[in-house]
User: Fold this.
Amino acid sequence: MDKYYHIVTYGCQMNVHESEKIAGILAEMGYRSCDEPESADIVVFNTCCIRENAENHAFGNIGMLKKLKAARRDMIIAVGGCLPQQMNKAEGLHKKFPYVDIIFGTHNLHELGQLIKQKLDGKKCVISVRESEGEICEEDRPLRTSYPNAWVNIMYGCNNFCSYCIVPYVRGRERSRSSQKIIEEVRSLVSEGYKEITLLGQNVNSYSGDMTFARLLEKIAAIDGRFRLRFMTSHPKDFSAEVIDVMADNPKICRCLHLPVQSGSDRILKAMNRRYTAARYLEKVDALRAKIPDCAITTDLIVGFPGETDEDFNATLDLVKRVGYASAFTFVYSKRQGTAAADMPDQIPEEVSKRRIMQLVELVNSQTRELSKTYVGRTIEILCEDFDAARGLYLGRDEYGRMGYFPSDEDVIGQFVDMKVEHANGVSLTGCIVR
Ligand code: 5AD
Ligand code: SF4
Assistant:
């Protein structure tokens, strides 16, 4: 009889890709994918803990499975990833949700198959969270779900310890894959027909395999075949002139950069342990624009970091105006137990953070809208990613990361098409294929 799995993923692209690895493990065990937990023999929650609401979201959904599990006692529920990897969280999870069968961390995802076997062999609850990161596992066979894009890890972990961030505690120290393995993986993905490769790492610029990140990018861009190359995330302190040169010289590398600034205030940047000033960040932006004037820059911003005054917040608004981001992810600071900022004085009241985030979102959106307007009438090259059944339109992005929607009689998913932009609506564009 067929057995089915259902995976629920929270958080960043790293998690999305790790869910593909989980799917690969389950497929090798004979499970097939299904869309609903009701039809699944195993449900896996791949969790995130970057902000409190990410945790609460997962808790809510795990809680909702209680009834289903009571009705179908043979269904396996597994909870893995960043949430249980936090100190002492696995035991708390077990207490809160005693009907969860398997709890695993970020460092032993590749052992999920064995953990499932232990459970099937009759173990009541399998809790396995490794404290340290161990060697990189090169054995995974991800079942990719984001064609025509393929995620490729180049490094894992983070050494930066930004004072607000839980990532270094749940992802361990930085380790880089060998360039040979990475290049082999990209080469085979391109030959399989993937059209966009996104290199992943918490801090790709501190890649420390057998060459620098700039050389690695250059080598990957030199692989034969038609594909776009993206990478994320770049820490401004490590983003180098060398990388800018490689981006400028290699047309396969998309003219866009995600460069999280977090704040425009030097005082707050220092307290965040970001190790750059607003001026230094702007120098990097200027250096990038000097070589690639049309480069789209996106960012992450946090409001309400402990001690943030109106003056600090205004410095963030000024920096956003100065850079002119193509888009930005905006977050209210969320206290994470165990991080340095959690113990800082002057935590900001919710109503102040709310007011600030609304103001910031309004500014970012107005910049994005202005940029969208400049697209109308232009023809852009879109890599078609998907079909939006509700709108009856295909969709994809240009190399700058801008989303475009268009009608088409034939299925063009995975193809590069030229779209003439007819309307701009917020971040997304609509138009028609001209070639
Ligand atoms: N609170 C709010 N935002 C956070 N981020 C990381 N940690 C926190 C936190 N504790 C944001 C940063 C980071 C992005 C991935 O998430 O902006 O760049
Ligand atoms: Fe977190 Fe800073 Fe590392 Fe990014 S660089 S993952 S924000 S600690």
Remarks:
- Residues 50-51, 164-165, 260, 262, 300, 302, 331, 333-334, 336 surround 5'-deoxyadenosine (ligand 1) (CB under 6 Å).
- The two ends are 47 Å apart (CA to CA).
- The CA atoms of residues 44 and 311 lie 45 Å apart.
- The longest helix spans residues 350-373.
